[in-house]
Design brief:
Length: 72
């Protein structure tokens, strides 16, 4: 949920903020994909991570399912 504070403070419009979040999350996803202890070991693209879809529903404004931590 870091984007809730940092990105608005930087004055980024929503589309630019989502591109930045997607780029960061894509890099994190690639790292997790190589980690045998990661919850998900599948790298996802920035577009997949930030695009609302049936498998990636909107959780809250600006937050998609794939951009949230998973807790058991």
């Amino acid at each position: 949920m870091i984007e809730k504070r940092i990105l608005p403070a930087r004055g980024l419009p929503l589309d630019a903020a989502m591109r930045e979040i997607g780029a960061f999350a894509e890099r994190a996803s690639a790292i997790a994909a190589r980690n045998p202890y990661a919850w998900f070991q599948e790298a996802k693209s920035a577009a997949t991570l930030t695009t609302v879809a049936p498998s990636n529903r909107m959780v809250a404004f600006r937050t998609r399912k794939y951009l949230n931590a998973i807790m058991t």
